[in-house]
Every structure is written in structure tokens, then in C-alpha cells.
From TrEMBL:
Name the record gives this protein: UDP-Glc:alpha-D-GlcNAc-diphosphoundecaprenol beta-1,3-glucosyltransferase WfgD
Record GO terms (molecular function): glycosyltransferase activity
Keywords: Glycosyltransferase, Transferase
The keyword Glycoprotein appears for this protein: no
Organism lineage string: unclassified sequences, metagenomes, organismal metagenomes
Gene: wfgD
Pfam families per UniProt: Glycos_transf_2
Domain Glycosyltransferase 2-like: 17-180
EC number(s) on file: 2.4.1.305
Gene3D superfamilies on file: Spore Coat Polysaccharide Biosynthesis Protein SpsA, Chain A
Keyword check for Transcription: no
InterPro entries: Glyco_trans_2-like, Glycosyltransf_2, Nucleotide-diphossugar_trans
């Protein structure tokens, strides 16, 4: 797999640009920043973007600049403050205001592992034509229980790589544990009209068009909690099925990959059904289940989904109405 859009990168003294978008994460932003600025190498810059937070995020960032005064004065640690525009817009802003050859988007409630950038640097030194490095991560529960999430190799064929990312979930990609070459964003950015799931079409575009590899070294600690955007059902619903068309744009994916669109459409209906079921919206969940069956009758033979649908029907009947 070669990179069809590789272009000469402008000169930068930084190998990595770590970008932390922050919206009302004043209680965790220090942990995220500390995890970056304590990395054992110096070929990186850190940009924190306060996306119109209404809590004490701005004050927390100010205190961090005082704590890391030398890195702040040198420009290695910078911050921006803007009115609220959402995660996609903020990440795109980070791309425009940094210069590193590789971009890492770390969520404000997560953190880098201790030697993450050193490990990524060594990979790039050995394989300088790599475009995206997909790292393993540690999943951290609310009780601080850690679970290692490994990564299998990226399939050589882009279509298979895309299938394993979008449909079978054999190739998960996590922000904060993934380094992306800057030139990936020369022709496509995060879709600003998406309040969530904005990273899915970007990762799909990268897998289909660029040279991607994995590493089983954990790059980030991903903290799971109920108020995380990863669990925001309303924003997920607002994106809905429009995600399918955004991912499978003929302008961005090769024909072999576009052939997966019908299969992913059925998968997306199932995905929204599961999200609604977990959130307790059983009537809406059953609507998506019905459409998923029409899209792919084999859904009836997926026992885990069938069990959830049966439970949703039983629980909905107990409520007597939708």
C-alpha cells in the first residue's frame, strides 16, 4: 500500500504535534498535559485548545503554563482559547496551528503512556515512509482497573483493512494511541458538521489510501466514564446514517473499498440499535432493529442482537407505550 497523496513536508523542528481539545475538562486536563510534557524526548510540541469551556478549564491551563514555564516560553507548550465549535472544528484548528510531521489527537480525559513518543519515534526511524501508526492502549475503568487492548497487524489489502475497522471491529483505532502523518490531512479534514464520530471517516480514509501499521506497545491510557463523548447518545443519533455517506465518498475511497458500503449500512443500523438499547430507549432501538433486518436479514441469526431485541421488546411492553 503506497501513499498516493504524499507531498513534501515543510521543515519543522518537531516530529510530533500533540493536540488536546478540551471542553469542560478542567478536572482532567492537568493529567493529560503532564503525561505529554513528561515524555523522555523533546522532538514534540503540545497544543491545548480550550473549546469554549464553561468550567475551570481555562484556569487549569493557565496554571499548567506556570508549572511548565520553560516549555511555555520556548513555544513547545502552547494553548488557544476559542468559542465553542465542537471537536471536529477544534481538531482542524489544531492541524492549522501546529507544525509537527505526525499528529496525535489526545482527548483531555485520557493520557499518554510514559514512553509513548519514544516508541513511536523509533518506529518512524525504522520505517520512515509510514503514514499512520495505530497503537495499542490501556483501557482504564472508573475503578481504575486497567485492561490491555492489543492490536493485530493491518491487512495489506485496503478493502480488508477497512472491513476490519468498520465492520468486524478486529482493527480498532483510538485517538491518543494513533499517530497520523500531517500530509494525510492535505485533502480531507474532520467533518465539522458531525458532533461525534468525526474520526471514523478520517481513519477510514487513511486506511484506504495510506501506509498504515500497528504496534502492540500501549501508547495511551483511555479512561472510560459515562459522561464521555464516546457514550453521548444524542450526538450519535444526530449523526445517524449520514456517517455512511461521509465514509463512503467516491471522491475519497477506491472502488474496491466502496463495495463495502451496503454491508456497513447494515452494520451502522445495528450500531445505533445497540447504542439506543444501552441508553434505555427501547422503542427507538426496536425501530432501528427492524430496519437492520430489512437491510440484512442475516441480522436475525446474530444471537447477541436478537437477545437485546427480545429484552427491548419485553421492557418496552412493561412501559405500555413508546
Amino acid at each position: 500500500m503506497l501513499s498516493p497523496h504524499r507531498e513534501t513536508c515543510f521543515v519543522s523542528k518537531y516530529l510530533f504535534s500533540v493536540i488536546i481539545p478540551a471542553f469542560n475538562y478542567g478536572h482532567t486536563i492537568a493529567r493529560a498535559v503532564h503525561s505529554v510534557l513528561k515524555q523522555p524526548i523533546n522532538c514534540y510540541e503540545l497544543l491545548v485548545i480550550n473549546d469554549g469551556s464553561s468550567d475551570h478549564t481555562e484556569n487549569s491551563i493557565r496554571q499548567l503554563h506556570c508549572h511548565y514555564s520553560s516549555k511555555s516560553q520556548s513555544g513547545q507548550f502552547r494553548s488557544l482559547h476559542q468559542s465553542n465549535h465542537g471537536l471536529a472544528f477544534t481538531r482542524n484548528t489544531g492541524i492549522d496551528h501546529t507544525s509537527g510531521h505526525f499528529l496525535i489527537f489526545l482527548d483531555a480525559d485520557d493520557e499518554m503512556t510514559e514512553n509513548a513518543l519514544l516508541h513511536l519515534e523509533r518506529i518512524i526511524q525504522k520505517k520512515p515512509r509510514i503514514d499512520m501508526i495505530i497503537g495499542a492502549h490501556l483501557s482504564v475503568s472508573a475503578t481504575l482497573k486497567k485492561r490491555f487492548r492489543p492490536r493485530k497487524p493491518v491487512p495489506y489489502q485496503p478493502q480488508q483493512a477497512l472491513r476490519e475497522y468498520l465492520i468486524t471491529a478486529k482493527l480498532p483505532i483510538i485517538n491518543g494511541a494513533t499517530a497520523m502523518a500531517r500530509h494525510i490531512f492535505n485533502h480531507y479534514r474532520y467533518p465539522v458538521h458531525f458532533p461525534s464520530n468525526e474520526d471514523i471517516p478520517v481513519f477510514a480514509y487513511a486506511l484506504a489510501n495510506f501506509h498504515c501499521i500497528t504496534t502492540n506497545t500501549p501508547i495511551a491510557r483511555i479512561h472510560k466514564h459515562t459522561d464521555s463523548m464516546r457514550h453521548n447518545i444524542s450526538s450519535n443519533l444526530s449523526v445517524g446514517m449520514s456517517l455512511v455517506d461521509e465514509v463512503f465518498s467516491p471522491a475519497r475511497l477506491p472502488p474496491a473499498c466502496l463495495a463495502l458500503k451496503a454491508q456497513y449500512t447494515g452494520h451502522r443500523y445495528q450500531e445505533i440499535f445497540r447504542a439506543l438499547y444501552r441508553a434505555g430507549y427501547y422503542c427507538k432501538a426496536l425501530d432501528y432493529f427492524a430496519v437492520a433486518i430489512k437491510q440484512n436479514p442475516m441480522t436475525l441469526f446474530q444471537l447477541s442482537i436478537l437477545r437485546k431485541a427480545a429484552r427491548a421488546l419485553w421492557r418496552q411492553k412493561r412501559k405500555h407505550s413508546c
